[in-house]
Write a structure and sequence with these properties.
The protein has 257 residues and is an alpha/beta fold. 50% of the residues lie in helices and 12% in strands.
Length: 257
């Protein structure tokens, strides 16, 4: 499947959390890995060597033998997969950097694992450029069609915040997500928390401020990366021990944004 969206939309953070969830709660059923494909020019051996490094199965000594690197990667992955219901979840991030030869390598892995009775479930994460890549593969003949059938059947658009309801949902996360026995809002604004104030209460104020700054009549898509930066600045600038509270950890509402 393809997971695509604009830069800073929060794709990488989201899939990272999904992998952690699979590893924690569903390790008996899935073997999850997330790998960031940050380079464009992986050679055949380098490609498998990099994957091996990322999943922790590199050879103890370096070798120039590409086949040895590939076979070590496949055998190590297969041995692990047999302990996890023969299902591997491979999340490849920033795949807009990959070339068709890299997808051919993935196809080879897919086929070899299938021969071992192992299902390889892939998620390709990247920008909207992935849609163009898919279109090119679909029109490039049998190899491209084989790649799209194996790795690009499902399409999921990951977008940023587009309305008040979504913004409130995100802010509620800071009011409910526990960290060291407290929620984030509770930690940074303890006295306000005791009085019943919650970050989500400021959804309307934050939205109005964002619209005022943008000068637009309605909210455009705001990438999650920008939303988290706003909230981080809010906590660190106006939170507990900040000079911009009332001295007791109560936020000055007009300064929350």
């Amino acid at each position: 499947s393809i997971i695509y969206g604009s830069a800073y939309a929060g794709k990488s953070s989201a899939v990272m959390e999904v992998c952690k969830w699979l590893e924690k709660d569903h390790s008996a059923d899935f073997l999850p890995y997330r790998v960031t494909m940050s380079e464009k020019n992986y050679k055949y051996k380098e490609f498998f060597q990099y994957l091996s490094e990322q999943i922790g199965c590199s050879l103890p000594v370096k070798t120039t033998d590409a086949n040895r690197v590939v076979e070590n990667f496949l055998s190590s992955l297969a041995i692990r997969a047999h302990k996890h219901n023969n299902k591997v979840v491979l999340v490849l991030d920033e795949v807009e950097n990959l070339q068709i030869e890299h997808y051919k390598n993935l196809k080879f892995v897919f086929n070899r694992l299938r021969d071992e009775g192992i299902t390889l479930i892939t998620f390709l994460v990247g920008t909207d450029a992935l849609l163009t890549t898919k279109e090119i593969f679909e029109s490039s003949g049998s190899i491209g069609e084989q790649i799209t059938r194996r790795f690009m059947q499902g399409m999921h658009h990951f977008h940023g915040i587009t309305d008040e309801e979504q913004l409130k949902y995100v802010l509620e996360g800071y009011d409910s997500m526990m960290f060291a026995g407290q929620t984030y809002t509770q930690h940074y604004f303890p006295e306000a928390w005791k009085k019943g104030m919650r970050l989500a209460d400021l959804t309307e104020d934050m939205l109005k401020e964002m619209l005022s700054i943008s000068g637009l009549p309605s909210l455009p898509e705001v990438p999650m990366g920008y939303i988290t930066k706003i909230i981080n600045a809010l906590f660190l600038t106006y939170g507990f021990d900040s000079v911009k509270t009332d001295g007791e950890g109560n936020p000055l509402k007009k300064n929350w944004i």
